[in-house]
Write a structure and sequence with these properties.
The protein is α/β, with parallel strands linked by helices. The protein has a single domain, classed as 3-Layer(aba) Sandwich (Rossmann fold). Strands 1-2-3 form a 3-stranded parallel β-sheet, covered by helices on one side. Helix 1 runs parallel beside helix 2. The protein is elongated and about 50 Å long.
Length: about 90
């Protein structure tokens, strides 16, 4: 396994460009990354179109599914509901 790392500088459009570069030029099939929802949403169409796989490592809103994405963070029903119940 050889990691290929780029710095998208927290810019959704650059995330998308680099996802294209990873998949097309570097021939990567599995991507670990994205930190914000906007960057995930920018990258996911690229990943899906190239039949690749994205590991998304942070919390996400839920209400989204892609067979090309492994959502490893919690969704609101896994943490926020319990917090509200505890606080009330």
């Amino acid at each position: 396994i050889e990691p290929i790392v780029y710095d998208p500088q927290s810019t959704p459009n650059l995330y998308k460009e680099l996802a294209v570069r990873l998949c097309d030029d570097d021939r990567v099939r599995v991507v670990f990354g994205c930190h914000m929802s906007s960057t995930r949403k920018a990258v996911l169409p690229v990943i899906e179109a190239r039949d690749a796989l994205l590991f998304y490592p942070t919390l996400y809103e839920g209400f989204e599914y892609s067979r090309h994405c492994i959502y490893t963070g919690a969704a609101p029903n896994q943490n926020s509901v319990q917090l509200v119940d505890f606080l009330t």
